[in-house]
Amino acid sequence: MPDIVGIRFKSCGKIYDFDSGGLALRSGDKVVIESEFGLNIGSVVEPPHPSDSPPKDLKKVLRVVTDDDLRQKASNEKFEQEARSFCYERIMARGLPMKLVRAEATLDKKRIVFYFTADGRIDFRELVKDLAARFKTRIEMRQIGVRDKAKLVGGFGMCGKELCCKVFLTTFEPISIKMAKQQDLTLNTGKLSGACGRLMCCLGYEYHDGMPAPCAKEQQAETDAAEQEISSEPAETGMVAEHAPAGEPSADGSVAAADRTGDQQKQPHKRRRRRRHKKKPPKNE
To answer: Where do the CATH 3.30.300 domains begin and end in the chain?
Structure first.
């Protein structure tokens, strides 16, 4: 069975499994691997460990990074800046509604990947032709979302610290306004949005950590159901029914609707008798 090693290509990127190829690797080592896109340099995150059911078509680690690989990597950074500048120029010349984020080239320069954001689908076929004619290599255009853009570019949040997605987040969890309501936060989206324009990822931290226990959830559900029944009863004399204990005044000083209804059922005959005695005497002619 081959030994599996976990490799990450970016600081907070996903971890991919590769065949160690019999190399004695440790966490933090820089290695060169061959993927579907070409040669790349990655960092070892999980040291080699045996696996009973390794994935099919598992790529192997070619070698540990050498000085020549590091010099080639530094040369590629200048090449990526040149490719980004030329691509930005052609986007402006053709008037395409897209925003270029980054250009990345493989270690052997056999492929250049351009990351961009756009509101909808973009017809960039002519742009690809311009890029292929300029760099004589394979061109790939990859559209990403605003969260992925913030992860690539980086920045600082409202807390003054570097963005979580740039520091330690490897995946984006769904964030909803319900999390802010549960924590009694303001519902102003301008104050709850991060650098990417979406709801901040940190809204989910305390929401998941502060979730009540299952028994407390059930008790809260029963309480909500009881309040729903009381508030759904028709109120008499046009007053709103409130959840107050029987015989005690509510917040506005009035007695609960359940008490008033019980009094009307106990004294219907007395009211009728009073009405009989209150008959007006006949007028004297």
So the answer is: 71-144
Strand-pairing partners, residue 199, are 193
- Give the CATH architecture of domain 71-144: 2-Layer Sandwich (3.30)
What would the two tokens of residue 107 be? 């270690």
- For range 241-270, the mean pLDDT: 42
Instruction: Retrieve residue 172's tokens.
Output: 């984006």
Q: Name the helix (H) or strand (E) containing 155.
A: none
pLDDT per residue as tens digits for the range 164-190: 998 988 888 899 988 888 888 888 888
CA angle centred on 172, ends 166 and 174, rounded to 5°: 140
Task: Give the Å distances, CA to CA, from 77 to 28, 94, 109, 226, 229.
Answer: 22, 26, 11, 65, 67
**Above 60 in pLDDT, residue 247?**
no
The dihedrals phi and psi of 36, each to the nearest 5 degrees, come to: -70, -20
Among residues 268, 270, 269, 235, the alpha carbon closest in space to that of 254 is found at 235
Side chain identity, residue 42? G
Pairing of strands 38-50, 3-8: antiparallel
**What phi and psi values does residue 196 have, to the nearest 5 degrees?**
-80, -10
Distance CA 43, CA 41 (A): 7
For 65, residues 6+ apart whose C-beta sits below 8 A from its C-beta are 29, 30, 31, 32, 41
Per-residue tokens: 203: 């809204």
- And the tokens for 131? 């890029």
> Taking Cα atoms as reference points, which of 201, 207, 149, 196 lies closest to residue 175?
201
Only one residue has tokens 């990526």, namely 80
pLDDT digits (tens, 9 = 90+) for 61-92: 999 999 999 999 999 999 999 999 999 999 99
Count of beta carbons in the 10 Å neighbourhood of residue 61: 23
